[in-house]
User: What shape does this take?
Amino acid sequence: MSKHSPKSMKRYINANINPKIIIYIMVTITPICMMAAYYWARAEGHLIRPFTNGRISCSPEEIALYSYIYSAFIGGCASVSATMRYLPESFILHAMFSLDAVLIAITFFFFKPWLLELNKYSDNPFKKINLHASIIMWAGILGGLFFLISTSMWNGRHVYDIYLGPVNVGDWHAILAYTFCSLILLSSLYFTIVEYKLRKSTLFSKGYKICFSIRILSFVTFIAIFSVVIGTLIINKKLKILNAGLEYWMIHIFILWYISFIFDKKFFNKFNN
Assistant: This one.
């Protein structure tokens, strides 16, 4: 194991902004805001079908009035995007997703110095760690930017009637949203692989084992659901009503990936603790 002094870590590890605090904020407020917006939309009669203009509301059977979990995740008529079409509940999701986009970009910015420091202490360092870490960082930052733009473009009942060039605003929102999902999936998977290779021999603590297992579970589930969503879009040209809840699954699985950092006590901390 390398004998580098932990002093070189102080610039980032003891920084005023601790990425773990950012992660705590994201994994706490995001599910709460999504539930609040869904129930508010249901109370206002604003749960509408995806890919529709105007107020084409879900029927009582489609809404499935039993609970948020059943409605959103299993048989829900409205997707996350469809829940963002009307005020006042759309304000909650717009504010939350805009904040999430910024926080995602910030966390991936901090992933680079974390990997650089890990590389110094690893028994199996990467020769081009700066390149790997930079790709991860910029893919995450770009993903956050696409998420922010996608969120800002999505508002109102007639998003499919307003065109920017040959594509309407609703379709631009979908293109940017799926670009965000792809970039974040690739960058988070890339980060997980690089970190695992750096830590598997010397820094593989019990907490990191739990952390790594949660990430693998989230990747497998996310890829499966994302494949279903993309396949449905390609085959049917639009998202089926019964698959609307898949958007909720994708977001909560991404939250699960971030939750994994909570179990890793060494993350962004001194290695000699």
Q: What stands out?
A: Confidence is low (pLDDT under 50) at residues 1-15.
